[in-house]
Amino acid sequence: MKVFIILAAFAALAAAVELTEEQRAAVKERAKACAQQEGVTKEQAQALRSGNFADADDKVKCFANCFLEKSGFVVDGQIKPDVVLAKLGPIAGEDKVKVVQAKCDSLKGANKCETSFELYKCYHNNQAQI
């Protein structure tokens, strides 16, 4: 289950705090649905979780987009900063989240899957600041 918690895109942040059983179940269901939809393997999910972004293919990138969309963080390839702050601020602290948002939220890819993947990578790589 921890794999799916971390895959909650920005969930590197959530891994540092205790989630309720209800939150864990919701994260797991979103991750499962997106993994099935995009055809992501367990190995690909584990690589994403561990920050191994080098071999990410289009399926992994679209998995990131699916998850971020189902979580409400991204809509039609556009990050929703207010949603990110509302969901992660109480967990990690609003000021810390805003610092990472300033670094990450302007990233754009060639399409919505690449954009979401770049956002995930940025948040993952800056998780120590949160």
TrEMBL record:
**GO BP annotation list:** sensory perception of smell
On the tree of life, the source organism's domain of life is Eukaryota
Q: Where is the signal peptide?
A: 1-16
Q: What is its main location?
A: secreted
Mind telling me which residue stretches traverse the membrane in this protein?
Answer: none
SUPFAM superfamilies given in the database record: Insect pheromone/odorant-binding proteins
Q: Which Pfam families match?
A: PBP_GOBP
A GO molecular function held by the record: odorant binding
Keywords, A to Z, come to: Disulfide bond, Secreted, Signal
Gene3D superfamilies membership: Pheromone/general odorant binding protein domain
**Where is this chain's protein located in or outside the cell?**
Secreted
Asked if Disulfide bond is a keyword of the record, the answer is yes
User: What InterPro entries would the database entry show?
Assistant: PBP/GOBP, PBP_GOBP_sf
Q: Which CDD domains match?
A: PBP_GOBP
GO cellular component assignments = extracellular space
- Family membership, please give it: Belongs to the PBP/GOBP family.
Q: What is this protein called?
A: Blast:General odorant-binding protein 56d
- The organism encoding this protein is Drosophila guanche (Fruit fly)
